[in-house]
Design brief:
90 residues; alpha+beta; two-stranded antiparallel sheet; 2 helices; Putative zinc ribbon protein
Length: 90
C-alpha cells in the first residue's frame, strides 16, 4: 500500500500530481497542495492557524462531509509542518 501524502498546510490528501503545489523551478512538491503553495511560496503567507482552521472547516462543510471528519481534520492541523512550530509564538 502506497503512503498518501497530505498538504502540510491544510491537510488535503495529495493523491494526484495535479493536487500538488509547485516549487519555483516548476517541479511538484509532496509537502503542499496547489491551493496553499505555488512557486515556492504560500499563497496566503500571512494566514495563521485559526484562519486555516476556519477555511478548512468551511470547505469541508460545503462538501457536506460528516462532522467527525471535519473535527478530525481540524485536530490534525496544528501538527502539520507549516503550523507545528508556530503554535506557541506570541
Amino acid at each position: 500500500m502506497e503512503n498518501t501524502h497530505f498538504c502540510q498546510s491544510c491537510g488535503m490528501p495529495l493523491t494526484t500530481e495535479d493536487a500538488k503545489g509547485t516549487e519555483n523551478n516548476g517541479l511538484k512538491t509532496n509537502d503542499y497542495c496547489r491551493y496553499c503553495y505555488e512557486d515556492s511560496n504560500f499563497k496566503n503567507p500571512d494566514m495563521n492557524l485559526e484562519e486555516m482552521k476556519d477555511a478548512v472547516k468551511m470547505h469541508m462543510e460545503k462538501k457536506k462531509l460528516p462532522a467527525y471528519m471535519v473535527q478530525k481534520a481540524l485536530n490534525i492541523l496544528p501538527a502539520l509542518k507549516r503550523w507545528k512550530n508556530k503554535q506557541f509564538v506570541i
